[in-house]
Amino acid sequence: MSGTWAIIVAAGRGSRIGADLPKQYLKLGDSSILALTLDNFLQHSNIDGVLVVTHPDDEELFKRECSEFADKVHITFGGATRQESVLNGLQALESMRPDVVLVHDAARPFTNHDVITKLIHAGNSGKAAIAAFPVVDSLKQVSNNIILKNVDRNGLWHAQTPQAFPFDVIRDAHFAIEDLSNYTDDAAVAEASGHQISIVTSGKENFKITTPEDLVQATMTINNRQTKEYKMAKEHQMESRTGFGYDVHCFEEGDHVTLCGVDIPHIKKLKGHSDADVGLHALTDAILGALCEGDIGTHFPPSDPQWKGALSDQFLVFARDRVLARQGKIIHVDVTLVCEKPKIGPNRELMVTKMAEILDINPNRVSIKATTSEKLGFTGREEGIAAQAVATIQLPSAD
What we know:
Helix content is 32%, strand content 29%. It is α/β, with parallel strands linked by helices.
């Protein structure tokens, strides 16, 4: 046995809604009701598989209205009643042997993922549980449009789906009952077999689309959702920026160089107002360039004594934080060091780790390369080191 499967019951005709198609194939926005329901369950991280119980006459309808899910779900045919359809679904899952099964109405496309998660947890704990919400309106018993008496609503709940069960529990309960036509939901079948059912509080948003009024409400719900999603997409629309940086420092007497945040033993050191980390300076300029916020000298002028001997990771942290302050993200950085000596290869991994740590990004987003100038120019004469850097960032669109 393994995992959690959902049975989506979609074999009904939905005659009360008064449409030419079974209601589960009616459109809400650009998608059918059934497609929205399937997408909701397939998007849940704890659902391992989905079985759709369809009507034998609806094969072409399913292929047309749920084509994007044809390779993602399993299909079986339903029976004359809802409970017979569920039984067919349970039999179809025998070979899958799931730990937990959730039975759900195709015409409830707005089930909250938190409710699904709680139901799965109940099933994995060996319990049966259903989505439901408490009755809040006053209840009246009526005959011929005349109120006979008030009904106490305390302890009364609206039963919904999904309804979750350990697979063996609900399968055996269906097999044990000869006539399933007297039962309106799976919880009633399980209760009749002696099982206790618990409640997971859901809400009115998990309504079943049954009448034309329900269809209007569902259309309003999907329109509101799409409007919110569009606004959020606009608010969070990102654009990519690329910046380039270049820096040079000459050698002077010393015993080590600092490159990309790492001290490397050498017979000389790099000359500069700060620690002269040519790699971090070039990268700082690349990020500031992508931000269109000047360069390292703009923010840390050499004429300012407070930066005398400063560690260059301070400059890179500043550039990083400027990206974050603008709700941006550093996607990738690439530094090329140009020198004859010292050798960069033995220190490359440590440099990558150090720069990733400073930038607070994954090391697989950091590239450090080295090359020589084939003995040409000031780097070829070992008079200094040059560095080039490219930074790719994302920022909220300025449009």
